[in-house]
Amino acid sequence: MMAWAITAFDALLVALLLWLAWQAIHADGLFRAVISFMVFGLLMAVAWVRLDAPDVALAEAAIGAGVTGALLLSALGRLPERDKEAPADRRARGLAAVGLAALALGGATALATIAWALPAPGLGREVTEALPKSGVDNPVTAVLLNIRAFDTLLEIGVLLLAVIATWALGPMQWSAPARVMSPALPVLGRLLFPMFVLVSAYVLWRGGHAPGGAFPAGALMGAGGVLVFFAGAKPWITGAELDPWRWLLSLGLVAMLVAAVGVGATGRSFFEYPVDLAGLFILALEVAAALSIAILLFALCLGGRPPHRWGSEDEA
Amino acid sequence: MTALAWVGASLVALGVPFFLLGTLGLLRFPDVFTRLHALAKADNVGLGLVCFGLGLHSGSLAHALKLALIWLLMVIASAVGAGLVARAAIARGVKPWGV
Amino acid sequence: MNELFIAIVLVLLGNITVGLWRVMRGPTAADRMLAAETFSTSTVAIVLILATVTGRGALVDVALVFALLAALAVVTFVSRAWPDIGEETARGGGGPKP
Amino acid sequence: MSLYAVLAAALFFLGLHGLFAARHMLRKILALNVMTAAVFLLLVVLAERADVADSVPHAMVLTGIVISVGVTAVAVILVVHLAHGRGRDRGD
Hints:
The complex is a heterotetramer of chains A (316), B (99), C (98) and D (92).
Chain A: H1 2-26, H2 30-50, H3 54-78, H4 88-117, H5 124-134, H6 139-147, H7 149-168, H8 184-206, H9 214-230, H10 242-262, H11 278-302
Helix pairs in contact in A: 1-2, 2-3, 3-9, 5-6, 6-7, 7-10, 7-11, 8-9, 9-11, 10-11
Chain B: H1 2-28, H2 32-58, H3 61-92
Chain D: H1 2-21, H2 25-49, H3 56-90
């Protein structure tokens, strides 16, 4: 009974995800597509839960269901034209889609079989062996901030580049004050802000020994910042004084670089922490990375350079 | 302990009809304003029963408090969300059904 | 007892599947958004029950993150997106943006 | 679990098809995101298959999720700018 029900659950989840992905790409109306994609993100988190990847599920919950949805919805408000598809060629496209679907299904099964047939030793044993020396108990955190800390460094660099790219394109794309005012909005912001700080700190703290850590905590904090900002709160730094922004945005990258190069002063190689201090190093880097990811995500969601004074800006 | 677990499990089961009724309302009610009830009321009662039931089932106070927090947050979110959507709908000129 | 829980989770997922009809149908953008919000409540319930079934406490944190961010989509929708979206078929609603 | 491997492959091709077939830029972004989700899914499924629980793919997926949101943000802003630029050129 149990195995049957679990298989049914998985099958239904897979079918739903496929249907939603199809809808996100081909549904009539952009709004329907975006909503389908948001539900897709929601159910992807359930899929991560089923695949026993709680770390990924946490990040997906904060980013896939939170930040990405907010980004897409904001963009939708700024797009001047709806996507119009000529009804004439829709039938031809439908036929082409059926052909492509058959092709894709064939290719998909082939790819899945090949992937399945690959030898799968994995790196699990190596990580487990290195874990006692890494300074934390959670293998994912150990990989992210010690064993493959270089990836994390580059990743924060990519986020910083993304922020620079969006800010370089001009001023903020969506206005700061909400269009529809409601007395509930400021209350919501005030009520939720301490909760966000608390839960982010909790997720960060748990990262040392259980699923959690800098990435989900940073993503949650960033998404929380966006929510509180959309609810009408104004950040204390504006666009007129870019120096604080510069420091805040580069905080994570600078901290990682200092840790990477600093150990070189004692004759070690790049990112090779002293074993007895590894836990401390990881904790410091985690805090820096989480704060930096939060600020970077918030900056990304502004959709451009912040205005000189909050609330007075006009849209581009 | 086992009795508590059973009570918890049956509370969880009791929550399911509320989710089903909420979806029924979502599908069958005639306009946005009535459909808001499905979001703001039925589903949250269902979630409340599920959280309460799972809290009893786990038998640990810390776990139960976390579940209560989750429920509280969802209630706040849907209460504010429902109010906002209704306001925005009125501002956009969506007429309530039967008016 | 796990059998019961898994059956419940299956029913809840089926519930989401049925509710997708509203996302597809509309008619206003608010209806679609509303349906998506309903799904997030169901998803929280699903994740919580799965957390109990698998005995992984970390999954409760996933539900906590969902609950915290549940308001984000609606707030963005109401304050950023909807006022500007030209409605496909609004029931007596405003027409598309000039 | 093999069900999810098939899902990953199918989603990848679905996204690839969408990337070329979709007209609107925003849909192309969605298609790209579907493809990334498929790749993440494949990585996690393969990690699940390994003899010892493998956390390296999980860490890679975590990094990837954050990077993909960065890419999405840049792409979305570009689309918004593009849409406005186009509108001006046409004179409306």
